[in-house]
């Protein structure tokens, strides 16, 4: 009986640790995911490029939180829900990856990174 309890506890601990690890990962997504799940939907969609880059062109429905201004970025993300998915992009994936890692560190549970970024969007959106 004790052996069964120990085995059950070990299995349960393993399952819980596997699940919590997946929640900590940033999910990389492609253009199709943006088109199917983000555009025109009520989601948290953030362009982490500079205001100038955003003004020069951005994906519809995205708000601009400049990751290069870390203090302002940290203030801006306070307006987001930590329980709802957050979708991020930048020019080519470097800054959005850093922003995604920061959001996870700040307690956001579901973070998606459009790794192709705005460059991929401009090239392949049609």
Automatic annotation (TrEMBL):
Coiled coil stretches, renumbered: none
Domain Rhodanese: 39-126
Stored PROSITE patterns: RHODANESE_3 (PS50206)
Stored SUPFAM superfamilies: Rhodanese/Cell cycle control phosphatase (SSF52821)
This protein's UniProt keywords: Transferase
Gene3D superfamilies xref list: Rhodanese-like domain
Residue intervals passing through the bilayer: none
GO molecular function: transferase activity
Name of the featured protein: Rhodanese-related sulfurtransferase
Species of provenance: Flagellimonas meridianipacifica
Lineage: Bacteria, Pseudomonadati, Bacteroidota, Flavobacteriia, Flavobacteriales
